[in-house]
Design brief:
Blueprint (H helix, E strand, L loop, with lengths): L3 E2 L5 H5 L3 E7 L4 H16 L4 E6 L4 H6 L7 E6 L2 E7 L4 H13 L2 H13 L4
Parallel strand pairs: 1-3, 2-3
Antiparallel strand pairs: 2-4, 4-5
Length: 123
Amino acid sequence: MATKNLTHADFTETVGEGIVFVDFWAAWCGPCRAFAPVFEQAAVQHPDIVFGKVDTEAEQQLAAEFRITSIPTLMVFRDGIMVYAQPGALRAPQLDQLIQGARDLDMEDVRRQLAERDAQPAS
């Protein structure tokens, strides 16, 4: 499966279910262009995962909502919850590790931790 171009209109629906990797990028960005083939190859190798791309030039509002200040930035969502966000291009072995980590997450534990954090009084 190829990567999917994401827009503000379809972003929330796309990341709402399953495992979704999102690459925030721009055409003028050298590291983005270097990371693109690695991301595309992962999309082919893992058809059960959605690999989305957000062009930060075309989708400035979406980039601003996620406070993207450095590109490429890779985010991982699982069942609508952001579980990873990090700027910088990854090599294929690093991306493969991240993919396996996303698959192995215990989402019940993640939800419990989020609930506990949200229950803490603001300091």
